[in-house]
Amino acid sequence: MASSDKKHILAIGAHAGDQELTAGATIAKYTMEGHKATLLHLTPGEKGHPRLTPDEYRKQKIEEAYQSAEILGADVRFLDYKDAELPVTEAIKLEVADIIRELKPDILITHWKNSIHKDHANTHLIVQDARFYAGLKTIERPLPHHYAGQLYYSENWEDMDDFVPEVFIDIPEDAYETWVKSLSVYAFARGETYGFPYIDYYKALTVVRGAPVYFKRAQGFMVPRGGLNKRLAYF
Predict the structure, then answer these.
(1) Can you tell me the distance from the alpha carbon of 75 to that of 116, in angstroms, rounded to the nearest whole number?
(2) Residues 78-95 pLDDT 10s
(3) CATH code at 132?
(4) What sign has the CA pseudo-torsion 208, 170, 76, 203?
(5) Rounded distance, CA 16 to CA 29, Å?
(6) Exposed, middle or buried by CB within 10 Å (0-12, 13-18, 19+), for 182?
(7) For 11, phi and psi rounded to 5 degrees?
(8) Element at 20 (helix H, strand E)
(9) pLDDT at 235
(10) Domain containing 116: what range?
(11) What is the pTM assigned to this prediction?
């Protein structure tokens, strides 16, 4: 693959584990074919354990995030914000915009806007403006402007209000197996925090999203301002 053909995916989640669950199979597919991916976690998601303190779980989640990203073949970044307290400010939007300018991704993936979790909804708003700020030449920052041309919203069970998948990415067997392995390093995904069967749910969802478009497995995504249903091998 020529270097000019390579894409860079930047997947931005409210918590470590969010985008691994919802877009991780797609990320594995891309990295296994020589593309680049970075996972940006705005918080670790450290308040989601019934038995560990936030400080204890923060350390664990960060370790898990790096292990998961290594399996996916992706890089990982964290911002220094607290779970359940993620603000929507110009400061954080510019932080994310600076990372977009630094990494120069071709593709952004983040949360859909309607969620039962405010951190997810806030992340959607943050990324929307950060993408705009990163691409605007007249906003002077340390790095030159960069516009990420493609934006997709991944399918999270907490973000399902009005979520209608419009783009379906075919997931081959090797990427699927790599993705499941990457999820298995997260205690919450294994059901060890509050018992929700995350891995089983998202594995089953790939079949649900694949069947109507005649893929064995697929991950579904929304696009800004609606769009056409597409049966795609790649974004």
Answers:
(1) 28
(2) 999 999 999 999 999 999
(3) 3.40.50.10320
(4) positive
(5) 20
(6) buried
(7) -105, 120
(8) helix 18-32
(9) 74
(10) 3-232
(11) 0.94
